[in-house]
Amino acid sequence: ILNVEQSPQSLHVQEGDSTNFTCSFPSSNFYALHWYRWETAKSPEALFVMTLNGDEKKKGRISATLNTKEGYSYLYIKGSQPEDSATYLCACRGSARQLTFGSGTQLTVLP
Amino acid sequence: DGGITQSPKYLFRKEGQNVTLSCEQNLNHDAMYWYRQDPGQGLRLIYYSQIVNDFQKGDIAEGYSVSREKKESFPLTVTSAQKNPTAFYLCASSIGTGDTGELFFGEGSRLTVL
Prior knowledge:
The complex is a heterodimer of chains A (111) and B (114).
Chain A: E1 5-7, E2 10-14, E3 19-24, E4 32-38, E5 45-50, E6 56-59, E7 62-67, E8 72-77, E9 86-93, E10 99-101, E11 105-110
Parallel strand pairs in A: 2-11
Antiparallel strand pairs in A: 1-3, 3-8, 4-5, 4-9, 6-7, 7-8, 9-10, 9-11
Chain B: E1 4-7, E2 10-13, E3 19-25, E4 31-37, E5 44-51, E6 54-57, E7 64-66, E8 76-78, E9 87-94, E10 104-105, E11 109-113
Parallel strand pairs in B: 2-11
Antiparallel strand pairs in B: 1-3, 3-8, 4-5, 4-9, 5-6, 7-8, 9-10, 9-11
């Protein structure tokens, strides 16, 4: 079982602040890295899937980068809004070809 | 609307009873998955199925059973052999099992053993 770690576990930011969090994973036998957003009482939804070292993806105010050589991915949110409040999950696909999830970063954006 | 439907949302069970959680998808996806969430932990894979009439154990399959008789349906039975069944259960599907296939999730079922 892969060791996928996310930090911080939780954070609170003010509306308008930009923020970022980290997902760390084993750099060997890497196949893909997924990010999901999970709002309270809803289903987790995919944000990004990345496979190549140096990949950068963007969706609106949210972007992500991938470094497979050192085994980390960053998720950035620019100008946080209250509707960005959610738990952000990352998941890594390794040689077992199944996704292993981190425990998530819980973001609260204060108005 | 296409999506994944899990039922029931909340379920209470007495110790020693088996219980079945339903998962139905109308996305025409081949692959389906069951995950378990416990506080402070990541989602852990229980079982997955890549095609009808076939399924594989995940990381924590002990005490659980599944079936995949139809493409749309992947029910999970939590048996009395599962020592700590109280948890939140998520069902998911994907087009295939390729590396870039994102998962589509249901809203989950919360099981409490009394």
